[in-house]
Write a structure and sequence with these properties.
mainly alpha; 2 domains; about 80% helix; disordered C terminus
């Protein structure tokens, strides 16, 4: 092998890999997807070049240069777990709340679809108190009139109940998302049905003396659980909108492109639902003798306020700096 000719043929690739490795060492997040693909391709190419130089017994300085270059690129591409956790943290610190702000329209639609049936139940119940007997779970009115609120049954089995609640809420949220593939109709049906169920129970509890205790149970964990479920519904509507209104793209291409955003929204909801499940299993069902309803309302209000601030403010400072730099 003519080493001089070999160097001239491949010098450009080596210098380009050197540039990308230098940029990535300062801020890997600053590389575009195209840059990342190029980084991987050049790493494989330069690794091959290194093997050829080693077999040709080339100049030690060239061998050292290529070895260092390959080692640097390898360290960037095959990052340790600690770095992956760093970028996972960046997702929740910046990207996830930014996605919620970006996709507020389908999330708002999910809120409307869920709330209107609940208000309908309240209206129908005010016009005809017996209406709730057709939509509420059987026997619930009798139990409530006896002063039996089912939520206190969670107390003796808190760990198991919390685990079940987490799993159930994640499954419900993912279901509302997956049903969006039916052109959004499945998500619409799921949210509306859930709204009727919740609205009927809330209206029925409102006709008894258990209303305060019921809402004291709902508010602490509902401050996180309800928004997460609505975000899941919004993700389902994103899929439906991609199929109904693909624009200039084919439906398949529009679905693939928009599903990336929708999946990220769902993944971001998982830890929120886990936290909500812990609260619902261990804190929300505490009886009034242990935790007064007023204290639960305060806790729920604080949780929702912090969550709202997170959604509205997280990542905005970085976005502002990036916008100015552009």
């Amino acid at each position: 092998m003519d080493v001089t000719q070999f160097v001239e043929q491949h010098r450009t690739d080596w210098e380009r890999l050197d540039q990308l490795a230098e940029r990535a060492s300062r801020a890997l997040g600053g590389l575009s997807k195209v840059d990342l693909r190029e980084l991987g391709a050049l790493y494989r190419q330069v690794s091959s070049d290194l093997a050829r130089v080693q077999s040709a017994d080339a100049d030690p300085e060239l061998l050292e240069y290529l070895t260092n270059l390959v080692v640097r690129a390898h360290g960037i591409i095959y990052q340790p777990e600690r770095t992956r956790l760093k970028y996972l943290g960046a997702f929740f610190a910046r990207e996830f709340p930014a996605l919620i702000r970006q996709e507020w329209r389908p999330i708002l639609l999910a809120l409307v679809v869920a709330v209107l049936p609940a208000f309908w139940c309240y209206l129908m119940a005010s016009l005809d108190p017996q209406f709730l007997n057709t939509v509420a779970p059987p026997g619930m009115r009798e139990r409530l009139e006896r002063g039996e609120l089912w939520v206190y049954r969670i107390n003796p089995i808190k760990p198991a109940a919390s685990s079940f609640i987490m799993t159930n809420n994640i499954a419900v949220t993912c279901t509302f998302f997956a049903l969006g593939i039916a052109f959004g109709a499945g998500t619409l049906w799921g949210l509306a049905t859930n709204g009727i169920h919740f609205g009927s129970i809330a209206a029925l509890v409102g006709q008894t003396r258990m209303a305060q205790e019921f809402w004291a149970f709902v508010v602490p964990h509902g401050a996180l659980e309800i928004p997460a479920i609505l975000i899941g519904g919004g993700a389902g509507f994103i899929l439906g909108a991609a199929l109904l209104f693909p624009g200039d793209l084919r439906r398949k291409d529009a679905l693939v492109m928009r599903s990336r955003v929708a999946v990220k929204l769902i993944l971001g909801c998982v830890p929120i639902l886990v936290i909500a499940g812990v609260i619902e299993g261990f804190f929300s069902p505490l009886p009034p003798a242990t935790m007064p309803p007023g204290a639960k309302f305060v806790v729920g209000t604080v949780i929702f306020t912090l969550f709202l601030l997170y959604i509205l403010r997280a990542g905005r400072a970085r976005q502002g700096r990036m916008t100015k730099s552009q």
